[in-house]
Amino acid sequence: MCAHILVAEDDLRQATVIRRYLEHEGHTVVIVHDGGSAIDEARRHRPDLLVLDVMMPVVDGLQVCRVLRRESELAILMLTARNTEDDLLRGLGLGADDFMTKPYSVRELMARIRTLLRRARRTAEVEAEPAEETVLQVGALTMDAARHEVRLGARRIELTAGEFRLLSVMLAAPDRVFTRRQLLTHTRGANAFVTERTIDVHILNLRKKIEPVPRRPAYLLTVVGVGYKLTDGSGTADGPDSFRAEPRGER
C-alpha cells in the first residue's frame, strides 16, 4: 500500500523520525516545516495523506486543515503537543480524519496511517465504480450517496467526510440506537485507534448543522447510558442535550 505522504512538522527531529518509518514501509515522503508550504505542496502534488502538526509557523495546522478540506477529501492526521480537548474539537470540526497528542508512539502513528490509507483506498475504489442511485431519507433529512450530498428540506448541508460517514450509517437504520463503539466500528473500522470521544464530537457538529435548536435536538437524540439514534425530527429530546460526559452502560 505505497502512498505519497506529506508531513508538515516544524520539529526537524520528529519529521526525520516519521520520514524514516514511512519510507521503511515503502511510502514516498515529502517534508515541509510551515503551514504555508503545506498548503502549496498539497495543492501542487495532491498527496494521499497529510500528517499535520497543529503548532507551526506562518500558518498553523488548524488553518491548513480548514483551507485544504474546502478543496479536497485528502486524508488528514493531526498532531498536537497540547493535551487539551480544544484542539481535538476544532480539528475534527474542521474535517481532520484522526488526531494524536504528543508525545506519541511512532508505531501507533504508523498503524493509524495504515488505517487511514486503507479507508481512502476503499473510498476511491467505490467512487470509481458506476454510481448507483442510493438515496436515504428520514423526515426532511435526505442523503444522496452517489452525489455525496445531504439536504434538510431544500437546504444543502455541508458535511466533513467523517460526519457524512456517521450520518449515512444512522440514516440507513432510523430509530435504531447505536452505541459509540458500534458507530466507531461502522465508520472507522474495528481496528480503529480513535476514541469514542470522536463520535461525540461528530454528533455535536452534526447537530449544529441540521438541528433547528442544537441544544434541544429533534433528529440526533441521545439515549442516556447507551448512545445515539436518528429520528424523523417529529420529537424532541427531554431537556437540553449538549455535549457532555454521560454514563455509557454496556457497549
Automatic annotation (TrEMBL):
It comes from the Bacteria. One of its GO terms (biological process) is regulation of DNA-templated transcription. One of its GO terms (cellular component) is cytosol. Residues 133-232 form the OmpR/PhoB-type domain. This is DNA-binding response regulator. Residues 4-117 form the Response regulatory domain. Keywords: DNA-binding, Phosphoprotein, Transcription, Transcription regulation, Two-component regulatory system. The lineage of its organism: Bacteria, Bacillati, Actinomycetota, Actinomycetes, Kitasatosporales. It comes from Streptomyces pluripotens. The modification 4-aspartylphosphate is found at D53. InterPro entries: CheY-like_superfamily, OmpR/PhoB-type_DNA-bd, Sig_transdc_resp-reg_C-effctor, Sig_transdc_resp-reg_receiver, WalR-like, WH-like_DNA-bd_sf. GO terms for molecular function: phosphorelay response regulator activity; transcription cis-regulatory region binding. Residues 133-232 bind DNA.
